[in-house]
Write a sequence for this structure.
C-alpha cells in the first residue's frame, strides 16, 4: 500500500485540504459536527483528532480515499482502506460487474480506466473506433490519454481535436487539483507537449469536420449548445458521441475508488446505425 503521509502531522494536512476546497474552519466544523475552536486546535497540532474525526473531516472535504489513508497515518492510526490488485481473487465480483457493463453497452464504446488513465478494460465498440492506432501506443499498460492525444494515435481522426484536447487537459487539471497525483501531473506535462496532428482542425465553435455532411454538421452544432461531442472518423464515416463518466459509490478500497467507467453514447442516428452494422 502506498501513501504520501508527511512528517508534518495531520493538522497541517487537513488545513491544506480545507484551503484547497476553499472552506472556512467554521463551515467545516459545522459540516463535521464539531466546533471551530476544536478544528483550529487540530490544525495547529494542539489537539489530536480521533480516528473517527479524521475520517469525518476527510469525507466532508471530499478527500480521495488514497489520501484518507495518508491522513490516518499522519494522525498515528492504521490505514483504513485496502489497496487490492484488480486481478486478486477477492476482486472477482468487481471484475465481473465491469465486464457485464462493458458487454451490455455494446456496440457502443465503453472503457474502464484507473486513476492514472491506464486502460483496465474495454469493449468491442472502443476497439472498433481505435483501429489504426500504432502498436507502440497499445503495448500494456495502455494509457488512454496518450492513445487519444499522441499525433500518431487517434488524434489524427478526431475531427474536433483542439476542442477535445482542451477538454481532456482540463479534466486532468481538475484531477491534479483534487488528488495531488504526481503520476497524473507527469502524464499531463507529457501529453500537453504533444504537437497537434497534421491537419488538426482549427474550428472553435461547433466542432464540425469535413465530410460530416449536413445532418452531421447540424447535429454537432446542436450538441455544442449543451455538451461537447467527440467527433471521430472511422472508415470514411464521422461518428459523433457524447461521453459520460461513472465511479463507484462509497468505495472501501483504493483501487475501486480510482476506477472510472467512461461510456460513449451515439449522438446521432447515423452513428448508432454504423455501430450496429459493424458490431451488432
Amino acid at each position: 500500500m502506498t501513501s504520501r503521509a508527511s512528517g508534518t502531522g495531520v493538522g497541517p494536512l487537513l488545513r491544506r485540504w480545507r484551503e484547497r476546497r476553499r472552506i472556512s474552519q467554521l463551515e467545516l466544523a459545522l459540516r463535521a459536527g464539531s466546533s471551530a475552536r476544536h478544528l483550529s486546535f487540530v490544525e495547529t497540532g494542539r489537539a489530536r483528532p480521533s480516528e473517527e474525526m479524521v475520517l469525518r473531516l476527510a469525507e466532508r472535504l471530499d478527500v480521495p480515499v488514497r489520501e484518507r489513508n495518508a491522513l490516518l497515518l499522519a494522525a498515528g492510526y492504521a490505514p483504513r482502506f485496502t489497496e487490492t490488485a484488480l486481478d486478486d481473487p477477492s476482486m472477482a465480483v468487481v471484475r465481473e460487474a465491469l465486464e457485464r457493463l462493458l458487454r451490455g453497452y455494446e456496440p457502443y464504446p465503453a472503457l474502464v480506466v484507473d486513476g492514472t488513465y491506464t486502460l483496465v478494460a474495454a469493449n468491442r465498440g472502443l476497439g472498433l473506433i481505435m483501429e489504426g492506432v500504432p502498436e507502440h501506443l497499445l503495448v500494456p499498460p495502455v494509457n488512454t490519454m496518450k492513445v487519444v492525444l499522441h499525433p500518431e494515435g487517434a488524434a489524427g481522426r478526431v475531427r474536433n481535436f483542439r476542442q477535445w484536447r482542451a477538454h481532456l487537459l482540463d479534466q486532468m487539471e481538475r484531477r491534479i487539483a483534487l488528488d495531488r497525483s504526481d503520476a497524473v501531473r507527469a502524464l499531463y506535462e507529457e501529453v500537453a507537449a504533444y504537437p497537434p496532428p497534421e491537419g488538426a482542425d482549427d474550428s472553435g465553435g461547433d466542432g464540425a469536420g469535413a465530410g460530416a455532411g449536413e445532418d452531421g454538421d447540424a447535429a454537432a452544432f446542436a450538441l455544442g449548445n449543451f455538451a461537447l461531442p467527440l467527433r471521430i472518423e472511422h472508415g470514411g464515416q464521422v461518428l459523433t458521441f457524447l461521453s459520460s463518466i461513472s465511479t463507484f459509490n462509497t468505495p472501501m478500497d483504493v483501487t475501486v475508488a480510482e476506477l472510472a467507467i467512461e461510456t460513449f453514447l451515439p449522438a446521432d442516428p447515423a452513428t448508432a446505425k454504423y455501430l450496429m452494422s459493424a458490431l451488432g
User: Anything to note?
Assistant: Residues 1-7, 202-214 have pLDDT under 50 and may be disordered. DSSP finds 13 helices and five strands in the chain. The first strand starts at residue 110 and ends at 113. The radius of gyration is 22 Å.
